[in-house]
Structures are given as C-alpha cells and as structure tokens.
Amino acid sequence: MSQEQQGAELGDSPTSPDPDSRTTAATDATPVVGIDLGTTYSVIAHLDETGRPITIRSAEGDLTTPSVVLFDGDDVIVGREGLRALSGEPDQVAECAKRDLGLKRFHKSIGGQVFPPEVIQAYILKKMRDDAALQLGEFQQAVITVPAHFDEVRRKATQDAGYMAGLKVLDIINEPTAAALAAGIAGDYLAADGKSHIAQNILVYDLGGGTFDVTVMEINGVHFRTLATDGDVQLGGRDWDQKLVDFVSQEFAGLHGFDPRQDPNFHAALWRECEDAKRTLSARQKTHVMCQFKNHRLKSEITRQKFGELTANLLERTEFTTREVLSAAGLAWDRIDRILLVGGSTRMPMVSQMIQRISGKQPDLSLSPDEAVAHGAAFLATQLQAKASGRTPSFEIRNVNSHSLGLVGKHPQTGQAENVVLIRRNTSLPARVQRTFRTEQKGQRSVLMQIIEGESALPESCTQLGRIVVRDLPRDLPARSPVQVEFTYASNGRLSVHVKIGGTDRELTSEIVRENSLTQDELDHWRNKIAGKT
Ligand code: AMP
Q1: Own/partner pairs for 273-277, CB < 8 Å, 24+ apart?
Q2: Of 136, 142, 316, 461, which sees the most CB atoms within 10 A?
C-alpha cells in the first residue's frame, strides 16, 4: 500500500468511547477502587463516605504491597512473602513483570513454567482485590493506572490483567494524571465549588520502582489537561539498586575473587541489602552494605555522595526528559506553578535537588509519593460510577498520546517502507484522523496494514502494534485504488481502526490483531485459573 501524495488528514474531532468491550461502566453503588499497579509496589484506594481518598491496607497490614509473586507448587503468593522468597528461591519468584508487559513471555521461567507478564500482573491485582474485599465487601469495578508513556500494547495488556483478575476495568488512567487529580482535588488548588482558583500549570515528575514519567498538565476549573508527556519504561528505582549491587559486587570480587552476581541466591540477598541501603541514604549521609557468602564477608561503606556519583547518569536521563517535556509543552519554568514529585524513588534527595537546580523552584512534597496515584484513580473510579448513575462529572480529563501512531506505507517514488504518522505524539485525545492510501497493484486481493507506534521514520525502529488485513477484494480492482484509513484514539490511549476500500463495499472496523496479546480463550482460561476455578 502506498501513501497517496495528496493524502488528506482531516484532523482531530471528538470520538466515541473506548470500543473495548471489557471496559464497562459502573452502574450501582457497590464499592469502586483505584489501583496503582506499580513495578515494585502496588496500592489500592477508595473514597470514604465523605469523599476522602483512603488507602486500603493489605491483609498483612501494609499500605503498599510488593508486586512480587511466589509460585509455590499450586500456591500462588503475592506480596511480602514473595519478596522474602526472592533470596531463597529466586527461580520461583516473579517480580517487575510490569516492565515486560507487551512481550509474549515473562523474561524468565518460573518453576519451569512460562507465564505471559500480564498473568503475573493479574495475580497481583487479584491479591489487591481480595485484600480490599475483606474491608469493603465484594466488588469488581476498578480503575487501574498506567505510566503515561505506556504504548497501546502495554495498555491493552494492563486491561487484560484486570480482566483475568476478575475485575471490571472501568478505565485506565495515566499515573501522572492520577497524581495531579489527587493533588488538585485533595490539595488546595480547588475552591469549594470544585473549581481551581486560577489556571495552574503543574509538572509531575514520577519516578517509581521500574518506570519514569514526566508530564506537564494544566488545571483550569474542573479541566485537567495534559500538555505534554514523556518517559522511560526501563528506568526506575531498580536501576539505582543495580548500580549499588554492581559497585559492591565488584568490591567483593576484587577482595575474594568471586562475583556475587553469579550466584542467584547470593545476588538476590545482596539486592535486598542494597535496596535497603539506598532507602537509608535518603535519610542519612552514609550507610553500610553487608555482603556475606560462605566464609567471605565484606562490609562496604557507601556515602550519599558516592551513591550520587554511581547513579549520576540515571538522574541525568530524567533531567533530559524533564527539559524535553517542558519544551514540548511550549512552556518555560516560570510558567510552571507547581512541581509534584510522585513515586517512591523521588524520596532520594538527589531528585529534589536536581529539580530545584533546573527549575529554580521548590518541589511540592505535600503528597504521599506512594499513595497519590492510587488516590487519583479512586477519584476517577468514583466519578465514573457517579456518571453512570446520571450525575454530573465533577472534573474532566484530557490526555495526549505519548507516542506517534501510524502505519507502514511505501513511499510512492522510492518504494521504501516508511512510518506514515497519522496521529502525532502529544496530540490532545480523543482524536480521530483519516488518511487515504493507495493499493499497489492491479487485481490486488488483500490489503495489509501494519500499525506501528514510534517517532522514527524507519518502521523497524518502531513498536509493532499489530496488523489488520482486508481480504477478498474484487479481482478487477485497479491499481492505486483508494484505501481510506481512520484511526480513532480514545482518551485512555486505546486505538481502533476503520478501513474502507474505495470502489468496493469492503469496509471494516477492527481491533488490531496483536502479535503478543492473549486470545479471548486464553484470557478466560487464566481468569478461571486465577479465580481458583480450574
Ligand atoms: P513505587 O513504584 O512508586 O512504589 O516506588 C518504589 C520504588 O521507590 C522502589 O524502587 C523503592 O526502592 C523506592 N523507594 C521507596 N522508598 C525510598 C526511599 N526512602 N529512598 C529511596 N528510594 C525509595
């Protein structure tokens, strides 16, 4: 298929709601929750009868639950116990599955079994749901948060995880948007009538355990509008841990001739020590990491300054993205009214220091970095429930897309495959864009559309979202027949595609066929298994 040279882009227009049939509306007064499904920790919250967000404690009594799953024979145990098992039985434990969403398989086999990453996420959601049900009573409806820069594939995988956990996913919401909602509603941005006193621009810097997001938002009245967003799905507190692990391992190897990273149990134990040391360094100037293997010991002293040096390039990556996002939003620092720090890793003093240095402003530390995202999701869940009962929404969210969306076309002159972008990144959502392409050959019986996400002109450097094929075209279809493609991108970052072949009655609206996504049968199989029905 080649791109028509005068291919028309009709621009943005309002669109219909998310076509995903599993996204349902809350219709009654049963409890609804918001879930922050984090890479390293997850949090669940609801609104109490006065409308205040409350974090629901786990069965173990914690506000956050480690996103770690222990597969112990037929038992699947999520949370603290999984974390403890990491150093003893690392082969039985799955962690950081959020980072693998979008892949077919979790990066290692667990107890000899291969799991799709969304199944591991589903087990975590099931635990969150069961624990919350102890306090709220049975419920199904939830809003789940995702990093703003999550692509379409990862968003779909997150919704699928919710489905497999037996939840009805009312919606997914970007984590920084959720944090801004929590800050805006619970903080002092809004007047008693629910509207903000004045329009404010806020920057949300969200550094969690495994992902990093930075977003610029405008809050104006009841409208929460994202101006620009970017991030890194492979950057988070885990990478700071890794730097310490590497440093201590090298020291140990230099002293005793054995690298702790070569033994899985030793490695996992050292990891826990280092994560602990990292947390200590947020409060103190120096600490020690104990490293013990067989008869060999090392007590390594780490200062905050040393830790800063070891991780300087990681912090720089976040600084670079922060500056880029600000520029994509078309703002300078003097137009930013507040800077919110979200995610456990923003407790590291180096983060506020860097933000202060580049912005000249004191970041807002009033939010609980662990709970804000879940609280924002709980606000949205409650609002969606109210809306379904006919009540007027108390706030409105407008997002942008974090990656350009397009399809693989052939350049009409060069014949080279190229990324033809239909919806540019940072376009306000929902968006609907049409473009006309042309068939290549006379009598062409089918048209293949490869949908991709990314900024590169080279399709192979972009994320492959999936394919749509229109078959059974008439045998006498002339070459260069028009193929009208329409992308409809919902507010929550889910895409549907409509294709019409000119001069024929062939027309279809499609969910994309995804290479790495589970089929409905597989989803149902796991849903039953996770519920303990098989
Ligand atoms: P989140 O995904 O937002 O729950 O963030 C979890 C990450 O925050 C993990 O990498 C933790 O190690 C990190 N974290 C939590 N508390 C601290 C702290 N006091 N200092 C440094 N990092 C922390």
Answers
A1: 273/248, 274/241, 274/244, 274/245, 274/248, 275/237, 275/241, 277/244, 277/302
A2: 142
Amino acid identity, residue 351? V
Distance from Cα 275 to the centre of ligand 1, integer Å: 9
Residue 513 in this model has a pLDDT that exceeds 70: no
Q: Which atom of ligand 1 is nearest to the CA of 238?
A: 10
Q: pLDDT, tens digit, for every residue of 69-109?
A: 999 988 999 999 998 888 788 899 999 999 999 999 999 99
Pairing verdict, β 168-174 and 141-146? parallel
pLDDT tens digits along 179-203: 988 988 866 555 445 555 678 899 9
Give the position, in ligand 1's atom list, of the atom nearest the Cα of 237: 10
Ligand 1: centre distance to CA 347 (Å): 7
Contact of 510 with 149, CB cutoff 8 Å: no
Which residues are CB-neighbours of 377 under 8 A, at least 6 positions away?
33, 34, 35, 36, 45, 142, 143, 144, 145, 173, 178
Locus of tokens 């028009």: 482
- Residue 508: predicted pLDDT: 81
Residues with CB under 6 A from ligand 1: 38-41, 64, 208-209, 237-238, 275, 278-279, 282, 343-345, 347-348, 370
Query: Is residue 439 within 8 Å of 447, Cβ to Cβ?
Result: yes
Give dist(CA 481, CA 477) in Å, integer. Answer: 7
pLDDT digits (tens, 9 = 90+) for 322-333: 999 999 999 999
Q: Under DSSP, is residue 485 helix (H, G, I), strand (E, B) or coil?
A: strand
Cβ distance 443 to 475 under 8 Å? yes
Supply the pLDDT for residue 294. 81
pLDDT > 80? residue 136: yes
Long-range contact pairs involving 232-235 (C-beta distance under 8 Å, separation at least 24): 232/149, 232/317, 232/318, 232/321, 233/99, 233/147, 233/149, 233/150, 233/154, 234/99, 234/210, 235/207, 235/210, 235/211, 235/314, 235/317, 235/318
Instruction: Provide the greatest CA pair distance for the chain.
Output: 80
Query: CA quadruple 183, 188, 190, 194: dihedral positive or negative?
Result: positive
Q: What does the pLDDT read at residue 90?
A: 86
